[in-house]
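Attaching the record inline, Q. Sequence:
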Amino acid sequence: MSETTKRALVCGAGGFIGHHMVKRLVKEGFWVRGVDLKYPRFNDTQAHDFVIGDLRDQGVVWSIFDQGFDEIYQFAADMGGAGYIFTGEHDADVMHNSGTINLNVLETARRRNSKRIFYSSSACIYPAYNQEDPNNPNCAEESAYPAAPDSEYGWEKLFSERLYFSYGRNYGMQVRVARFHNIFGPEGSWNDGKEKAPAAMCRKVAMAKDGDEIEIWGGGDQTRSFLYVDECIEGVRRLIQSDWTGPVNIGSDEMISIDGLVDLVAEIAGKRITKRHISGPTGVRGRNSDNKLIERKLGWRPTQSLRSGIAKTYDWIKSQVGTGVAALPD
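Structure, as predicted:
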């Protein structure tokens, strides 16, 4: 590594978005260190150095910052889809683990004088009272307050946003914060209990025979928008290279109902699928990314259609189903 090579640290590099960010940074010529509790599940990491370590441990975090980094990406969190976040069974772990990680990483970055840091927040910070109408949710960035997230995961993300902005104000750190809206794509969780709706529906349809019935949590009319992972990475790179802190939505504004998502996956798969609605965790009634601010500030908005991203994701999950890969234990 030459003295002029830019260096990046990716926290959560064994996870879905972190793994894709490592690939992007390496492609751009960065020297990259990744850190996580585990290596990426579905492919080898491209990081030049990958540390298996627990970011809740201050000693581990201090050892990782043995050099200055031009850019830090903080994706590490205790999280998952609706089946993990909304049951209430993991609330204490979610808040403690993610909160501790952010406190450790941010303070150590400050002490090591690595100033430019990106934090991945979530659309789950938005108030539940603005997302009761599935056809007209309000997720504009300024709508975050008065705060009323629908989960402890959302509350922790909101606290951590304020933590990062406080370090920016008090210590001159170059903080960038984005609120992700349901990022999906290949090489993400699809069968381990932490998968989100696109992966879950792709799995169910891929495993179903033509004419089969699949189970859907809730009434199916709850709405969401879903962003393909490559678009997410592009938005993050543009944000961290800008002189603007955020917070900003990074998501698609192509809203669809969960029933509509199932129909789209079935159409792509060429299968006739019927739906049986059952009780289960669903989160808010409606959520859709408001992209007016990111377009105004960064001159960019996602352009890839949901159909295009789902088609690529379905093909990948279908290939995984074909291998008989079982869910991995926690």
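The chain is about 40% helix and 15% strand. The chain has two domains: 7-184+226-250, 197-224+255-287+305-323.

More tomorrow.
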